[in-house]
Structures are given as structure tokens and as C-alpha cells.
Amino acid sequence: MLPHEMKFVVDVPESGTVTEHADFDLCQPDGAEGPLPAVIFVPGPITAQLPVRPRHWPMYQGYARLMAGRGVLGVVIDQPYHDVSQWPEMAESLVRIVESVRALDEVDADRIAVWAFSAGAMQIGRWLTDSPEWLRCLALTYPVLDIPYSIGPGRPVILTRVGRERPEWQATVDRFRAEAEAAGTAVRLIDVPDGQHGFDVLDPAEQSRRAVLEAADLVLRDLSPLTRFS
User: Fold this and answer.
1) Helix (DSSP H) and strand (DSSP E) numbers for the chain
2) Total number of domains in the chain
3) Is 230 inside a domain boundary?
4) Which family does it belong to (predicted)?
5) Digits of tens for pLDDT over the chain (230 positions)?
6) pLDDT the model gives residue 215
7) What is the DSSP track for 197-211?
8) Which helix (H) or strand (E) holds 107?
9) Strand partners, 52
10) What is the C-alpha end-to-end distance of the chain, expressed in Å?
11) What CA–CA distance (Å, rounded) separates 192 from 35?
12) Taking the model in full, what pTM does it have?
């Protein structure tokens, strides 16, 4: 089964309005008024031969609608990211896309969350080192972090970790947690003990659904106008 044929583990109502831009899709809540915070979803690399882009997969559409249903904007980016070796180029592309999103009238440019999946996380190293004030949190779901980075103070990190991860990818997560602890960076850990890489489509269990919803709740908390980080 191909990714675009796989169902998201959370049942999300078909609501909200989706606007397609060159590099991303924007999902707005029904009846949205005024600029709203945005959650920007960053997929990992996919082979160029797949017939459907991640922005049109039920998984990422589900994440975006999940956030829109809770009153914020869901943004799924679209990059020509086909191999992990492209991560430096894609990281620069991501910066440009994020700035394009922040420039939209619909977006509260000072309340942004970036949520990366798998080796999509290899693009976020700059924001581990230096956190702009507009970045309210980073969320990482089964990340692969096989990149050079240093961790500076600032935004919290929401880390969803799976129990059946590939050892070489788990090693990058373990390294990240150790370095974050040494730097004093807040990491909120969500464990999916029986989950595998891609649990949000591959493991339709209550454990998976709880993990997705808990991560979403934490992201929303960090996007609150009452939350500030230094």
C-alpha cells in the first residue's frame, strides 16, 4: 500500500478550507477571522516516483485538519526532497517557505510552530541552535537527526519517540536527548512503546491516537498568547 492510500490513525472531520500555494497547502478553520497561529508540518524525503505528494496524503491532511479543528492554521509544506543527502538544500528551502507562510495575512507571524517528521527533522538544526521569538515550539515525530547541530536556549521541543525504531535512527534521538538535557532545553517526551516509524498510519491503535493528540495539545499550549520563552 502506498502512503497516499494509508489512513491517518485519528478520525478528523472533513472541515476547514484548504488553499493551495506553490510550496505548501494552508488549512484554515471554518469561519476563521483575523490572523491565527500556524503549525507548519515538514515531511521527510520521499522517492520521486511516488504518484502523490505528501501534501495530499491523508496523514498530513489529517494533521492539518486536526489543528484547524482546534482553531489554528495547519500548513503542509511541499519540497522536492527525495533523499536525505539533500537536507542542506532543503533546510534553506524550508526557511524561505516558513517566511512565505509568516507573510500571509491569515497568519499571526509571531506564533509559529514547526512540526517535523522522520528525516524532515534534518532541516531544523538552525532552530535548535538559535530560536527566533516567533518560533513557539518545535515538534519532532519519530525524527532522524543525523546532522551536525548545537542546542541553544529558547523554544521547547515536543518529541514523539517510537519503541520499534531502527537502531541507527534511535541513536540520533538518544544523542539529541542527551545534548538537550546538557543544554537545559525543555524536551517533552511522548512515548509510543509499541509504535514503529510511521505509527500514525501503520499502527491504528489507541496508543497511537493518544500520542498524536497529546502532541497536538502540547503544540497548542505553546502557541497560546500567554506562553513566553526565553
Assistant:
1) 6, 8
2) 1
3) no
4) Belongs to the AB hydrolase superfamily.
5) 899 999 999 999 888 899 999 999 999 999 888 899 999 999 999 999 999 999 999 999 999 999 999 999 999 999 999 999 999 999 999 999 999 999 999 999 999 999 999 999 999 999 999 999 999 999 999 999 999 999 988 789 999 999 999 999 999 999 999 999 999 999 999 999 999 999 999 999 999 999 999 999 999 999 998 665 54
6) 98
7) TTHHHH--SHHHHHH
8) strand 107-117
9) none
10) 45
11) 34
12) 0.96
Whether 229 is in a domain gets the answer no
Q: Print the domain residue range for 52.
A: 3-222
One-letter amino acid at 13 equals P
Confidence (pLDDT) at 46? 95
Which helix H or strand E contains 101, and what residues bound it?
A: helix 87-102
Q: Which three cell numbers stand for residue 76?
A: 503542509
**pLDDT for the residue 102:** 98
Q: Which residue has the cell 497516499?
A: 4
C-alpha grid cell, residue 85: 543527502
Task: Give, in degrees to the nearest 5, the angle at Cα 7 between 193 and 79.
Answer: 90
Predicted pLDDT at 16 = 85
Residue 222 C-alpha cell reads as 505553546
Return the H-helix or E-strand segment holding 194: strand 187-196
16: helix, coil or strand?
Answer: coil
Q: Can you say how many angstroms the Cα of residue 26 is from the centroid of all Cα atoms in its chain?
A: 14
Is 101 a member of any domain?
A: yes
The angle formed by the CA atoms of residues 61, 147 and 111, to the nearest 5 degrees, is 45
Domain membership of residue 182 (yes or no) is yes
Place of cell 531502527: 166
Question: What length does the chain have?
Answer: 230
Angle value at C-alpha 165, between 160 and 167, nearest 5 degrees = 125
